[in-house]
Specification:
Number of helices: 3
Helix content: 40-55%
Shape: globular
Largest sheet: 3 strands, parallel
Strand content: 5-15%
Number of strands: 3
Radius of gyration: 15 Å
Distance between the termini: 28 Å
Length: 110
């Protein structure tokens, strides 16, 4: 058989991802109908999976711009490798200008 084989961990991760993000998809459809999103912005992406999921559910590559923002260098590199069609911006985002301590948070399911 052809196709992509995934591990149970990848399938489980995808199921969790979909459960949480499906509300975003539903809200977008409620507000904008079937109009595709022009931009999907994922701040603190970790791995690009959420941004990729939303681009595919709310539009499509080529018409919907997927932007993943990640402060951690290793995670930004991993996102670029895993999702080459996403635009990855390696920076932190804050509500003020200047330097701040960075607190790394790791999700239990990823």
């Amino acid at each position: 058989r052809g196709g992509c084989r995934r591990t149970w961990g990848q399938v489980r991760s995808s199921m969790l991802e979909n459960r949480w993000l499906e509300n975003v998809v539903l809200m977008h459809r409620e507000l904008f109908g079937e109009t595709p999103a022009r931009v999907v912005l994922d701040v603190g992406t970790r791995d690009g999976d959420d941004a990729d999921f939303l681009v595919r559910r709310l539009g499509e590559y080529g018409t919907t711009r997927g932007v993943a923002i990640e402060a951690r260098h290793e995670a930004a590199l991993d996102t670029r490798r895993r999702h080459p069609r996403l635009e990855v911006i390696e920076t932190a985002v804050s509500n003020y200008v200047g330097r701040a301590d960075f607190l790394e948070i790791t999700a239990a399911h990823k």
